[in-house]
Amino acid sequence: MQELSHWINGRHVKGTSGRFADVMNPATGEVQARVPLASKAELDAAVVDAARAQVAWGAVNPQKRGRVMMAMVGLINRDMEKLAEALSREHGKTIPDAKGDVQRGLEVIEYCINAAQMLKGEFTDSAGPGIDMYSMRQPLGVAAGITPFNFPAMIPLWKMGPALACGNAFILKPSERDPSVPLMLAELFKEAGLPDGVLQVINGDKESVDAILDNEVVQAIGFVGSTPIAEYIYGRGCSNGKRVQCFGGAKNHMIIMPDADLDLAADALIGAGFGAAGERCMAISVAVPVGDATADALIAKLIPRIEKLKVGPYTAGNDVDYGPVVTAAAKANILALVETGVAQGAKLVVDGRGFKLQGYEQGYFVGPHLFDHVTTDMDIYRKEIFGPVLSTVRAKTYEEALGYAMDHEYGNGTAIFTRDGDTARDFAARVNVGMVGINVPIPVPLAYHTFGGWKKSGFGDLNQHGPDAFRFYTRTKTVTSRWPSGIKEGAAFNFKAMD
Questions:
Q1: Could you give all domains of the chain from N- to C-terminal order, each with its CATH number?
Q2: Is the pLDDT of residue 160 over 80?
Q3: DSSP of 328-372
Q4: Per-residue pLDDT tens for 89-142?
Q5: What residues are labeled active site?
């Protein structure tokens, strides 16, 4: 059986803790590798080495750091097939979905090529007699990222790219469920010219996470995962004086107005609700049609589309719509919530509970589910299911539909489908959700904008990628400079007005 490693000081290093986690093949339910789980001592030692390497890396000018990012773009494109296959093998995504995972991370690395532009400070000439003022953006030192299983390429690249481009060293603690792609990305960064020790990939579990949170050298932490863990990391990290950004769970609503193109809306719901088996923080999990006529027509269009979905392993070809969920525990949780929805009175109009895939009976496949007549007090509405389950909540009016999205504790993403510009503009202006789509079901911003949710979907002041990333991974130093000319004055004992 394959034994994975850490990536420390530019090479693969075996774990020394003696603890391991199994890496499963979610399509078969079989163990395909094992990954070492680092001890606090291993993590702390990697941080020491990273801090030592960061001094020289932080002194490299931004253009040269940008060239490393440029080389990295070429290497990721070169190895796209290899990365996607490794990602699918451990996560279960289809190959096209895995390539999309890599691609959206690659776009952030492309943005980081322009690090020199993003790191420019400000300058005020002649703020006072002979006085100039200017600001500099300087790296924090050592930053860390704790990333989830559902995007094992994209989110590590979202974290690593800006942090490294800013001149920091970076400690990545990826998910132990699918760790191979982050290790492969570390190899590519070395090939791209990143100095040894500047990027450390430390595999682990809660012990490693707590070691990151408590390590005095680590200055900033980025996290993506569930809201309870986000709250824990944000609270403990901030109490230890660190800069922290945490992105948690979601319950994304898509409002369908009576004037919407229902075929377009139905197709959007299929892709946004069932793509990647629903294991996306930006998945649409709640459809909110306005009016019973809209709801009835929408359900009629959704049922045949959902019943035609092809569920299978990534090896079955690119026409597979989605694959297995990541673990047996995830499958059990999804099906338990489905049972709860039925027990609480929701109408299960597409029932995927009996789904079995011949030859893959031990895999973690979950059939697609569609609920109608869901109410806001039901568990399937309140909780993030993170599976192929779409709930329909009927609204009588636009205001009622808007209220569903606004009143939910999560505020990651939302969408509205309508032909009416006034309604769309009102929705975008009023809804208290971080990312909004207008006739776009999954409004994930491109790399030069920022990604982040509101309410219990996000903790911290700055978002991921885009300009916010360069603010998060740097601190501003402001310099007031005076070069006296002419007759020198004596000592001054009070602040003088700059006139």
A1: 2-248+457-479 (3.40.605.10), 252-438 (3.40.309.10)
A2: yes
A3: HHHHHHHHHHHHHHHHTT-EEEE--TT---TT-TTS-----EEEE
A4: 999 999 999 999 999 999 999 999 999 999 998 999 988 888 999 999 999 999
A5: 281
